[in-house]
Design goal:
alpha/beta; 6-stranded mixed sheet; 3-stranded antiparallel sheet; 29 helices; 15 strands; elongated; Cas1_AcylTrans_dom; glycoprotein; golgi apparatus
Amino acid sequence: FKGDDTCEYLLSSGRFLGDKVWQPHSCMMHKYKNSEAKNCLLDKHIAFVGDSRIRQLFYSFIKLINPQVKEEGNKHGNIPFEDKSASIKVDFLWYPEVNGSMRQRIKSWTEASTAKPHIIVAGAATWSIKIHNGSNEALTQYKINITSIAPLLEKLAKSSDVYWVLQDPVYEDMLSESRKMITNEKIDAYNEAAVRILNSSSRNSKAKVKVFSVSKLIAQETIMKSSDGLHLPESSRETNAMILMNVYCNKILKPIDGSCCQPQPPLTLIQKLAFSFFTLSFIGYIIINLIHRNNYRKNKPCTDLENGEEKKPAVGAPAVSTLEMLLHSFCKLGLIMTYFYLCDRANLFMKENKFYTHSSFFIPIIYILVLGVFYTENTKETKVLNREQTDEWKGWMQLVILIYHISGASTFLPVYMHIRVLVAAYLFQTGYGHFSYFWIKGDFGVYRVCQVLFRLNFLVVVLCIVMDRPYQFYYFVPLVTVWFMIIYVTLALWPQIVQKKANGNCLWHLGLLLKLIGLLTCIFFLSYSQGAFEKIFSFWPLSKCFELNGNVYEWWFRWKLDRYVVFHGMLFAFIYLALQKRQVLSEGKGDPLFSSRVSNVLLFISIACFLTYSVWASSCKNKTDCNELHPSVSVVQILAFILIRNIPGYVRSVYSSFFAWFGKISLELFICQYHIWLAADTKGILVLIPGYPMLNIMVSTFIFVCVAHEISQITNDLAQVVVPKDNPTLLRRLLCAAAFFSALLLFSAIQDQPRH
């Protein structure tokens, strides 16, 4: 840890991921689009001063602003560029040697009457080596000239961003005869002189000339692909230009996936209040714990010295009070949230970009599947989608999704389409599970609703406060929360139709089907009426929950992507429970679900459908077109999997306890990965141990899983206290919750005013 100046790392160190992806040491580079570059450089003047290598960098830089630019014009002269739409002016000034001419140009910018460029990129040396045939006298003169220029550059650095580009190595075998005197040994000597002289007189860290040395590292890996041994290939020049853009623009635009050169965000009012609350909880817990320990010592049995008998106190050791349990939970949560903040908001730990390879995704998948098979046990019950089986299903899906996220596999369309099915399967289970509960139990009480809402949302609400993120940022929780409320309202509205009532009269089944048809109609209407959907969720305070970047489009897109699958889950639960009631299914241990012939036919159809969907998903060419079909066809593979998993009696009678363990904390795993396994809000990877990728993944994964498990325990403990069963107490708690969220909205409005 060398401080929080990641710009120094960006300009001086890094490595290649694959052939073309450059990874700076400790931070993440953003890939700037033309519109972003124009927005950042609005009304700016940039000057590139130097030789042909600087000219190449100039062209790569202006292509980030306008990709249509052609490399034309006098190669040994000045080249102007202007983008009138954004008032951006970029000039290349031909000064191939560090001499009096270059000094005079730089000196003119230091004079008050002259407009200074906002960014100056300079560098030269190879011409001096070439013209003077690599003589030592030329190097001595170079040192004298750069010594005279250095104070001027440092003076400019007080008001402008000044970069001195060190000389890249050459590929000596490819150099022409006229350039053979340009050796890497000479280049190193010139670079050493430049680094030693620049900033030697500067004491102010803000008035420093930034040495652009990372280009040397890039060139060492790519110069052999050069066309002449001297000039870098185009991909390397583009990387250098992107680094320059990141150095200057990250602190202005603050892209999520560009952590280099970004300052640590200041604490918001809500964050300060949250940390104060956790601190007070910690102090309160220590005080209560000390009081209890003191009382316990006073009441501890002691021995009568006269007769040797033990005297028993009147009062035994006190039980843990509700207040102590609450404070204990908040203490643990406070420590965990501090770790979250340090990982993804403070510039304490490093972050790196993701880089996808097939092996980085498929090898871990095979590994965890083998592990899951080794932990096979018998189930307690053998019903279709029993608790152990659904936990197992959630578990292996969650592990696959985690590997998908950390490997950056979203760039590979076939994998993306299969992961979309896994997300849909989670929502299918939401529809199946909640419908089954309400249908069988008939419990539409407030206690049930509050329990579910608390367990789903507790962690996300805390993270919204501590990490200063909107609720919609953790999109999956709003999704399952809204679908739970839709299921509840659909079944709780008059007439309330439950299994007990429907068993007495078959017409009630028809009534329930009409309710489901009404729900399907509403879903269909909203999915094709973006305006109506956005109006519903744009009303305050709903807009505070579902807006992201100032609009609800992201929420509409996420909802629309899996709009039918919850309905499919409800319909499947209804059909399954109806068949179960009529004893059509054989759910005994080891028995096939249907008769042998029917089971074999259904199993064959299921495998065929499962593989057909995989073939279709793997042949997808366009993500947008495939996403349009996904809501209608994802249920095919989900139902196929359920039948394959449940028709054979033996397969239905066993489960993987390894996957089931992860399934019980799947929600916490999904949410926690955002900040303490991934980084920069899922755009990168958290680096706790730099330089050792495998060891880093092992350590960060261990901490991540332990934290997710602990948060699950804390949520369960707090749910028992915060959501009591007796209605009067529950009503008081709901009023307290309303007051809490009202205060949160108020503080949010207060802290948003300075931002606007």
